[in-house]
Amino acid sequence: MTGEDGSVTPNADRPAAAVTAVVDLNADVGESFGAYRIGSDDELLALVTSASVACGFHGGDPAVMRRTVAVAVEHSVVVGAHVGYPDLRGFGRRPLAVPPDELFADVLYQLGALDAIARAAGTAVRYVKPHGALYHAAAADPAVGRALLTAVRAFNPALPVLTLPGAVLVDVAADVGVPVIVEGFPDRGYTAAGTLVPRGEPGAVIDGPEEAAARAVAMTVDRVVTAVDGTPISLAPRTLCIHGDTPNAPRLAAAIVARLRAAGVELRPFA
Protein backbone atom coordinates (compact mmCIF):
# COMPACT_ATOMS: atom_id res chain seq x y z
CA MET A 1 0.00 0.00 0.00
CA THR A 2 1.24 3.50 -0.85
CA GLY A 3 0.54 6.13 1.81
CA GLU A 4 -0.18 9.81 1.40
CA ASP A 5 3.51 10.53 2.01
CA GLY A 6 4.54 8.17 -0.81
CA SER A 7 5.73 5.41 1.54
CA VAL A 8 5.17 1.76 0.65
CA THR A 9 4.22 -0.80 3.29
CA PRO A 10 5.60 -4.32 2.72
CA ASN A 11 2.90 -6.82 1.65
CA ALA A 12 0.00 -4.39 2.18
CA ASP A 13 -2.73 -4.83 -0.45
CA ARG A 14 -0.47 -7.25 -2.33
CA PRO A 15 -2.16 -8.60 -5.48
CA ALA A 16 -3.91 -11.93 -5.03
CA ALA A 17 -1.49 -13.66 -7.42
CA ALA A 18 0.29 -16.73 -6.07
CA VAL A 19 3.42 -16.04 -4.04
CA THR A 20 6.44 -16.63 -6.26
CA ALA A 21 9.09 -16.28 -3.55
CA VAL A 22 9.71 -15.11 0.00
CA VAL A 23 12.54 -12.79 0.96
CA ASP A 24 13.67 -10.52 3.77
CA LEU A 25 14.65 -6.90 3.12
CA ASN A 26 17.27 -5.52 5.48
CA ALA A 27 18.87 -2.10 5.74
CA ASP A 28 22.07 -0.93 7.40
CA VAL A 29 20.89 1.73 9.84
CA GLY A 30 21.88 3.58 13.01
CA GLU A 31 25.15 4.77 11.48
CA SER A 32 24.93 8.40 12.61
CA PHE A 33 27.35 9.45 15.33
CA GLY A 34 27.05 12.42 17.68
CA ALA A 35 26.39 15.52 15.57
CA TYR A 36 27.02 13.63 12.31
CA ARG A 37 23.87 12.41 10.58
CA ILE A 38 24.02 9.56 8.08
CA GLY A 39 21.07 8.14 6.22
CA SER A 40 17.28 8.44 6.53
CA ASP A 41 16.61 5.73 9.06
CA ASP A 42 13.01 6.63 9.91
CA GLU A 43 11.97 6.33 6.26
CA LEU A 44 13.87 3.09 5.73
CA LEU A 45 12.54 1.43 8.86
CA ALA A 46 8.99 1.97 7.59
CA LEU A 47 9.85 -0.14 4.53
CA VAL A 48 12.17 -2.99 5.53
CA THR A 49 11.63 -6.18 7.52
CA SER A 50 15.03 -6.35 9.25
CA ALA A 51 17.39 -3.65 10.55
CA SER A 52 21.16 -4.13 10.80
CA VAL A 53 21.96 -1.60 13.54
CA ALA A 54 25.49 -0.19 13.88
CA CYS A 55 26.98 -0.97 17.27
CA GLY A 56 29.27 2.01 17.85
CA PHE A 57 32.50 0.85 16.20
CA HIS A 58 32.08 2.00 12.57
CA GLY A 59 29.10 4.23 13.28
CA GLY A 60 26.41 4.77 15.85
CA ASP A 61 26.61 5.75 19.50
CA PRO A 62 24.48 4.71 22.51
CA ALA A 63 21.83 7.38 21.91
CA VAL A 64 21.64 6.64 18.17
CA MET A 65 21.46 2.91 18.86
CA ARG A 66 18.65 3.38 21.35
CA ARG A 67 16.61 5.60 19.05
CA THR A 68 17.14 3.33 16.04
CA VAL A 69 16.01 0.26 17.93
CA ALA A 70 12.95 2.13 19.23
CA VAL A 71 11.89 3.04 15.69
CA ALA A 72 12.51 -0.54 14.54
CA VAL A 73 10.29 -1.85 17.34
CA GLU A 74 7.60 0.69 16.41
CA HIS A 75 7.50 -0.79 12.89
CA SER A 76 7.82 -4.45 14.04
CA VAL A 77 11.20 -4.69 12.29
CA VAL A 78 13.63 -7.41 13.40
CA VAL A 79 16.84 -6.06 14.97
CA GLY A 80 20.27 -7.38 13.99
CA ALA A 81 23.77 -6.35 15.10
CA HIS A 82 25.86 -4.63 12.41
CA VAL A 83 29.30 -5.27 13.89
CA GLY A 84 32.45 -3.74 12.44
CA TYR A 85 36.08 -2.85 12.93
CA PRO A 86 36.86 0.01 15.37
CA ASP A 87 37.11 2.56 12.57
CA LEU A 88 34.82 5.57 12.96
CA ARG A 89 37.07 7.75 10.82
CA GLY A 90 36.99 5.30 7.91
CA PHE A 91 33.36 4.23 8.49
CA GLY A 92 34.56 0.67 8.92
CA ARG A 93 35.48 0.32 5.27
CA ARG A 94 39.26 0.20 5.74
CA PRO A 95 40.89 -3.22 6.22
CA LEU A 96 42.45 -3.51 9.67
CA ALA A 97 44.91 -6.12 10.92
CA VAL A 98 43.06 -6.97 14.13
CA PRO A 99 44.40 -10.09 15.94
CA PRO A 100 41.78 -12.85 16.28
CA ASP A 101 41.55 -12.57 20.08
CA GLU A 102 40.94 -8.83 19.84
CA LEU A 103 38.39 -9.29 17.07
CA PHE A 104 36.59 -11.89 19.21
CA ALA A 105 36.38 -9.37 22.06
CA ASP A 106 35.34 -6.51 19.77
CA VAL A 107 32.48 -8.51 18.27
CA LEU A 108 31.32 -9.80 21.64
CA TYR A 109 31.39 -6.26 23.05
CA GLN A 110 29.25 -4.92 20.20
CA LEU A 111 26.73 -7.74 20.48
CA GLY A 112 26.33 -7.18 24.20
CA ALA A 113 25.92 -3.43 23.85
CA LEU A 114 23.20 -3.60 21.22
CA ASP A 115 21.40 -6.48 22.88
CA ALA A 116 21.17 -4.55 26.15
CA ILE A 117 19.55 -1.64 24.32
CA ALA A 118 17.29 -3.98 22.37
CA ARG A 119 16.10 -5.79 25.51
CA ALA A 120 15.33 -2.48 27.22
CA ALA A 121 13.12 -1.72 24.20
CA GLY A 122 11.31 -5.05 24.46
CA THR A 123 13.16 -6.99 21.76
CA ALA A 124 16.57 -8.65 21.28
CA VAL A 125 19.33 -9.06 18.72
CA ARG A 126 18.13 -11.72 16.27
CA TYR A 127 21.01 -11.91 13.79
CA VAL A 128 24.51 -10.62 13.07
CA LYS A 129 25.83 -8.86 9.99
CA PRO A 130 29.49 -7.81 9.69
CA HIS A 131 30.02 -4.36 8.22
CA GLY A 132 32.23 -3.14 5.40
CA ALA A 133 35.83 -4.32 5.56
CA LEU A 134 34.99 -6.88 8.24
CA TYR A 135 32.20 -8.32 6.06
CA HIS A 136 34.59 -8.91 3.17
CA ALA A 137 37.48 -10.11 5.33
CA ALA A 138 35.27 -12.62 7.13
CA ALA A 139 33.90 -13.86 3.81
CA ALA A 140 37.38 -14.55 2.42
CA ASP A 141 39.75 -15.15 5.36
CA PRO A 142 39.08 -18.25 7.51
CA ALA A 143 40.93 -16.79 10.51
CA VAL A 144 38.84 -13.61 10.49
CA GLY A 145 35.66 -15.58 9.92
CA ARG A 146 36.44 -17.96 12.77
CA ALA A 147 37.11 -15.11 15.21
CA LEU A 148 33.81 -13.49 14.26
CA LEU A 149 31.82 -16.72 14.43
CA THR A 150 33.26 -17.94 17.73
CA ALA A 151 32.28 -14.60 19.29
CA VAL A 152 28.74 -15.04 17.95
CA ARG A 153 28.65 -18.61 19.24
CA ALA A 154 29.83 -17.48 22.68
CA PHE A 155 27.04 -14.91 22.79
CA ASN A 156 24.24 -16.97 21.23
CA PRO A 157 24.95 -19.91 18.89
CA ALA A 158 21.45 -19.66 17.41
CA LEU A 159 22.09 -16.23 15.88
CA PRO A 160 22.51 -16.45 12.09
CA VAL A 161 25.31 -14.50 10.41
CA LEU A 162 24.83 -12.83 7.01
CA THR A 163 27.36 -13.36 4.23
CA LEU A 164 27.85 -13.61 0.47
CA PRO A 165 26.98 -16.82 -1.41
CA GLY A 166 30.02 -19.02 -1.86
CA ALA A 167 31.94 -17.25 0.91
CA VAL A 168 34.59 -19.11 2.89
CA LEU A 169 32.58 -18.05 5.94
CA VAL A 170 29.87 -20.56 4.99
CA ASP A 171 32.25 -23.50 5.47
CA VAL A 172 33.79 -22.04 8.63
CA ALA A 173 30.33 -21.49 10.10
CA ALA A 174 29.43 -25.14 9.51
CA ASP A 175 32.56 -26.13 11.43
CA VAL A 176 31.97 -23.64 14.26
CA GLY A 177 28.28 -24.45 14.54
CA VAL A 178 26.69 -21.10 13.68
CA PRO A 179 23.94 -20.72 11.04
CA VAL A 180 24.48 -18.45 8.03
CA ILE A 181 22.09 -16.52 5.81
CA VAL A 182 22.99 -15.76 2.19
CA GLU A 183 22.56 -12.07 1.30
CA GLY A 184 22.05 -10.24 -1.97
CA PHE A 185 22.77 -6.58 -2.78
CA PRO A 186 20.50 -4.96 -5.37
CA ASP A 187 22.23 -1.61 -4.75
CA ARG A 188 25.75 -2.89 -5.43
CA GLY A 189 27.59 -4.13 -8.52
CA TYR A 190 28.99 -7.67 -8.70
CA THR A 191 32.20 -8.98 -10.21
CA ALA A 192 32.25 -12.09 -12.40
CA ALA A 193 33.59 -13.97 -9.34
CA GLY A 194 30.42 -13.17 -7.39
CA THR A 195 32.03 -10.64 -5.06
CA LEU A 196 31.01 -7.00 -4.74
CA VAL A 197 32.76 -4.44 -6.92
CA PRO A 198 35.03 -2.41 -4.59
CA ARG A 199 33.67 1.03 -3.78
CA GLY A 200 35.28 3.70 -5.92
CA GLU A 201 35.40 1.50 -9.00
CA PRO A 202 32.95 1.93 -11.92
CA GLY A 203 29.66 0.13 -11.37
CA ALA A 204 30.18 -0.38 -7.64
CA VAL A 205 27.01 1.41 -6.51
CA ILE A 206 23.56 1.10 -8.09
CA ASP A 207 21.71 4.30 -7.20
CA GLY A 208 18.85 4.19 -9.72
CA PRO A 209 15.62 3.02 -8.02
CA GLU A 210 14.25 1.21 -11.06
CA GLU A 211 17.53 -0.57 -11.78
CA ALA A 212 17.90 -1.64 -8.15
CA ALA A 213 14.30 -2.86 -8.09
CA ALA A 214 14.76 -4.89 -11.27
CA ARG A 215 17.89 -6.47 -9.80
CA ALA A 216 16.01 -7.31 -6.60
CA VAL A 217 13.36 -9.20 -8.57
CA ALA A 218 16.00 -10.98 -10.66
CA MET A 219 17.82 -12.08 -7.51
CA THR A 220 14.69 -13.22 -5.72
CA VAL A 221 12.58 -14.75 -8.49
CA ASP A 222 15.10 -15.70 -11.19
CA ARG A 223 17.97 -16.41 -8.75
CA VAL A 224 20.48 -14.54 -10.87
CA VAL A 225 22.30 -11.21 -10.99
CA THR A 226 24.28 -9.76 -13.89
CA ALA A 227 27.90 -8.84 -13.11
CA VAL A 228 29.46 -5.60 -14.37
CA ASP A 229 31.02 -7.49 -17.29
CA GLY A 230 27.70 -9.08 -18.27
CA THR A 231 28.35 -12.47 -16.66
CA PRO A 232 25.20 -14.03 -15.14
CA ILE A 233 25.79 -15.12 -11.55
CA SER A 234 23.54 -17.62 -9.79
CA LEU A 235 22.53 -16.87 -6.23
CA ALA A 236 19.64 -17.64 -3.90
CA PRO A 237 19.53 -14.91 -1.24
CA ARG A 238 17.24 -15.18 1.77
CA THR A 239 17.70 -11.48 2.44
CA LEU A 240 18.35 -8.40 0.33
CA CYS A 241 20.28 -5.40 1.63
CA ILE A 242 19.84 -1.67 1.18
CA HIS A 243 22.78 0.47 2.36
CA GLY A 244 21.37 3.18 4.59
CA ASP A 245 24.17 5.64 3.80
CA THR A 246 23.20 5.77 0.11
CA PRO A 247 21.72 9.27 -0.37
CA ASN A 248 18.48 8.05 -1.95
CA ALA A 249 18.18 4.80 0.04
CA PRO A 250 14.48 5.29 0.91
CA ARG A 251 13.62 5.73 -2.78
CA LEU A 252 15.56 2.57 -3.61
CA ALA A 253 13.79 0.65 -0.86
CA ALA A 254 10.34 1.90 -1.88
CA ALA A 255 10.95 0.91 -5.51
CA ILE A 256 12.24 -2.51 -4.47
CA VAL A 257 9.26 -3.18 -2.21
CA ALA A 258 6.80 -2.13 -4.91
CA ARG A 259 8.48 -4.21 -7.64
CA LEU A 260 8.80 -7.29 -5.42
CA ARG A 261 5.13 -7.09 -4.45
CA ALA A 262 4.12 -6.74 -8.09
CA ALA A 263 6.13 -9.90 -8.85
CA GLY A 264 4.27 -11.81 -6.13
CA VAL A 265 7.17 -11.84 -3.68
CA GLU A 266 6.29 -11.88 0.01
CA LEU A 267 8.50 -9.82 2.31
CA ARG A 268 9.12 -11.66 5.56
CA PRO A 269 11.92 -11.53 8.16
CA PHE A 270 14.21 -14.57 8.09
CA ALA A 271 14.84 -14.28 11.83
Give structural notes.
With 271 residues, this protein is an alpha/beta fold. It is globular. Helix content is 37%, strand content 17%. Residues 1-8 and 12-16 have low confidence and may be disordered.
Gyration radius over CA: 17 Å
Q: Pick out the low-confidence regions.
A: 1-8, 12-16
Choose one word for the global shape.
globular
| Count of beta strands | 10
Largest sheet entry: 8 strands, parallel
Proportion in β-strands: 15-25%
SSE pattern:
EHEHEHEHHEHEHEEEHE
Helix content: 25-40%
Kindly report how far apart the N and C termini lie.
24 Å
Tell me which oligomeric state these chains represent. single chain
Average of the residue pLDDT scores: 93
Provide the structure class: alpha/beta
**Tally of contiguous helical segments:** 8
Write a compact overview of the structure shown.
The chain has 271 residues and is of the alpha/beta class.
SSE arrangement:
Blueprint: E1 21-29, H1 41-45, E2 50-54, H2 62-74, E3 78-83, H3 100-120, E4 127-130, H4 132-140, H5 142-155, E5 161-163, H6 168-176, E6 180-184, H7 209-222, E7 224-226, E8 232-234, E9 239-243, H8 249-262, E10 265-267
Parallel strand pairs: 1-2, 1-9, 1-10, 2-3, 3-4, 5-6, 6-9
Antiparallel strand pairs: 7-8
Helix pairs in contact: 2-3, 3-5, 4-5, 5-6, 7-8
List keywords for this structure.
single chain; 271 residues; alpha/beta; eight-stranded parallel beta sheet; two-stranded antiparallel ribbon; 37% helix
